Amino acid sequence: xxxxxxxxxxxxxxxxxxxxxLDLESLQLSDEEQGGLDVPxxxxxxxxxxxSFEARPGITRRPLKSAREQVLSALQEVGLPMLxxxxxxxxxxxxxxxxxxxxxxxxxxxxxxxxxxxSQRSVWLGYGLTESGEAVKRLLARSDFTLQERVxxxxxxxxLFFATTARFCEIxxxxxxRIEDFEAFSIFVADHxxxxxxxxxxxxxxxxxxxxLEKAYEALAGIAERDLLDRRHIAxxxxxxxxxxxxxxxEFSAEDRSIDPPxxxxxxxx
Amino acid sequence: MKGVVAAARLLAKARxxxxxxxxxxxxxxxxxxxxxxxxMRVVGEEIIQAVGYGRLGAPPQVVVEHHALSxxxxxxxPFANALDEYLTRAVDLDFxxxxxxxxxxxxxxTVMAARYENAGRNLNPNPALRxxxxxxRLGYLCRLIxxxxxxxxxQIVVVMTEAIRRHFVTGQIPPKDGHxxxxxxxxxxxxxxxxxxxxxxxxxxxxxxAAMLSREDDEAVExxxxxxxxxxxxxxxxxxxxxIEHLQAxxxxxxxxxxxxxxxxxxxxxxxxxxxxxxTKQNTSWLKYRLEVVVARxxxxxxxxxxxxxxxxxxxxxxxxxxxxxxxxxxxxxVDGNAxxxxxxxxxxxxxxxxxxxHQIDLTVDHQPNIRLRLGHRVQIVxxxxxxxxxxVKRTPVGxxxxxxxxxxxDSAAIGGPHRWADQVPGKPFTQKYYDKIKSVLGMS
Amino acid sequence: xxxxxxxxxxxxAALIRTAVNPDxxxxxxxxxxxxxxxxxxxxxxxxxxxxxxxxxxxxxxRGAKFEINNHANDAMPLRKRIAEAFGYAxxxxxxxxxxxxxxxxxxHVHIGNLRRFRKTxxxxxxxxxxxxxxxxxxxxxxxxxxxxxxxxxxxxxxxSRYLNPDFMVLHRALGVYLIGDEKSFIVRDDTxxxxxxxxxxxxxxxxxxxxxxxxxxxxxRSAPIISDGLLIFASPYGLSASKMVQENLAGEIRQIENAxxxxxxxxxxxxxxxxxxxxxxxxxxxxxNTQLRESCYGRCIMVQHCEQLPQNAAAALGSDVQKLLxxxxxxxxxxxxxxxxxxxxxxxxxxxxxxxxxxVLGIDIATYLQEVA
Lengths: 270, 445, 373
What we know:
Helix content of chain A is 53%, strand content 6%. Chain A is built from eleven helices and three strands; from the N terminus they run H-H-H-E-H-H-E-E-H-H-H-H-H-H. Chain A has a three-stranded antiparallel sheet. Mean pLDDT of chain A is 81; it is low at 41-59 and 253-270. A six-stranded antiparallel β-barrel of chain B has the order 8-9-12-11-10-13. Chain B has a five-stranded mixed sheet with strand order 4-3-2-5-6, sandwiched between helices. Chain B has a two-stranded antiparallel ribbon with strand order 1-7. Chains in contact: A-B, A-C, B-C.
């Protein structure tokens, strides 16, 4: 949460500058034409997030990594829990990495088995958790995200939509020269940004990332605090969970209905 | 009507051949040149992937788009131009006649109309994705076709399955009558034939006849599209593309020949000819005006209620005309109670100079199980001038006695008969009178 | 005919088919036994089913894509339609919970159903109790049909008593949810382009609404009785969602309700046949009553088989012919016509109707009866 007004303003200006640079790029001027312009160099401003970024060279194509590693690093870059669908599209556009949608189920299974075996891993692939501690199976996260960041309250779906859209815009603005398929990535961002509230004209084929970023922050400001409060509460309640459950969600066996005690209004209230 | 159709169905089954339920065609014979449209859609998406078009009786022109979901529409341009040319020519020569095989094909054209006209109005910001003006015009022409189709008694657009079912009844269970091939088997079979049902079932099994590819061909196209996506060689892609286009063209040709067969069988049954010069002229001039001037859809309430009024008028006119020309149709109406036979037993004319005028006639109505004569009901002699409003109805041992106030045609009233009576032919609604007045003032036909 | 990929009918489809033809034991038995339809056809008829079976791949894809689009970005397209239809200030006021995100429908079927069902129960309960922050829109709820139990308490439809409607929307004033379905059929001018399919969708929603009624009843006997459901279709332009429509489904719900005792009856019949040593459905089929109707065409794979059965001869030409003949065969009618004495009123009316019809066709009744009998 950005609380420093100066910093917020700086971000805004930097984003606008990035956008302008992108717009300039899209004109595709020749070297000569460009020489005639008097464009000052744009300083690189990148705001550090809570987690540290991996130091990354300028190459876009990644060395062969397992699907698990790809997913984990996507999550690290974005710094937020992400829907598996978004991870899939993100990796495809950003790095040209293809992960089949069906893969995520087996990733979960494999991860849980590794945990049961007692494997040592610096970071685990984890999941979003509902207020009852159950997994949100399509919401992927890293074990080094705080519990508070991983739990899901009534407004978290909305908040994550705004926050991840903002983050995707930032990446488009800051990392545009290190994106494998910028066109596909732009469309990926646009597919999210189109549903931001307060967006006046959404034009297909136009990508005003800076404007979208601003709108996303505005939207976020509306619910971020409320959502944070809810998540704090939920996280507090869930700290009692066992390690495994805190990572993958509680798992109860699929009993047959006939063995279950009848679900009544009273038992649910407990 | 339902009872008659049911009885006909039993008879058709016994004869193993379709039975007619009317005496005359409700459409005129074809003009010199007809135009048939046989489209193929991608199921669910309602997108055209192929179209066969041209004169029935000759092989069709076929245009295809191997990857219909790409939303490319350039392939439709020759079709659009051919349709436009045909319509423009035909409205001047005689009248246009457009043949469409079945309801799904008409629906497809209707969806196309909405889409392409809309694409013309709301331009896609990406110029590469905008359909050409010929295709936008095609959308407009399809809307005109749809609008004409909904006009009662219209003579221009013929949906073959529906036309057949209006005139003939097969000997199979009604759900099977949706298949043009099955219908045609029954229509073409001679009374006393054998195995008609089996042949009809076979036709329905192997070909959907619903403006779509067979399941097999559909799946083949899917798998070839998949291969194209994966292929690295332009030559291979070309070859595979040609494979798809071949499958599409084959399907079009199959449905085209089914339509031709049905057309021949339909007219071959040799019912009495229909007589609808007025409505044909009206349809044609309606169309001609709209070919020259692009008319937007009426969305305002007044325009829509006017259209409704005209619709009701034409429906009534059409029905009266059919009853007049076709004694079998008259009998249908009798069975349903909407028409009757009666003698005029007395005529009471109000003497000249006396007001108010209330000419009356008495009728002796033949017995029939159903009759809908009620106070205030307005009836007219079929094909005649005499119009009366029911003042009194009474049952008798042999039928009914009725007294009518004569609203028109008292001079033609004379004791005698029997005459055929049916609902009053509707008078021109205000809208029509208004248009007629304007046309006469402007000197238009 | 649209069965699932494995040929098995879902529980809601089973209910619907039985509802549409409650006098046919065979269709109920196929639904109960949960065997693959083409396989059953092969076993009973003795050869492979040759016609088209199952939804076309393009439709499956389109439906899946439609859903994905509608559920993206915290289900914004659905939120927009809900805001319009229910008078919210805007889509941002619509709170969403997506159970498919938590427990994917495409995952393990039984565990998924159970878990989603429990979550759904909790949501429904909390909404009824007017708790705070209740979702206005729940995607992929799961409900149970507790009446689908055989007398011994076991589920009637083997392995499947859950329904999975597409979504449900909160009716704030009443504190209850309305069941909804999203279908990628195209609507134009506020009418579905393929109206035959509309009935099917309404029955599906009706099944879900019936299940919701039971859930509410188990919370509170005096809970409101819902009769309305929600529909969303696609516009002709691309795959965008059209307006949301709320419809009264009391008739369809009644129809589905009536199907349940029929299923229970047939379950008893099957149990009896099993006790007699017949285990395969194919072996039991000859002992099961069939009822051929016009609605069977395009709906049930067995129609070609049932057409041939002598017991269905009277129905073989459709309901209008049956009505004309008063349920008798042409031969029986001919015999009636040949009767010398006075006939009861009904038979007289029947004959009169046929006589009139024959007259219109230009043929006298004697010749007519001779030809058709």
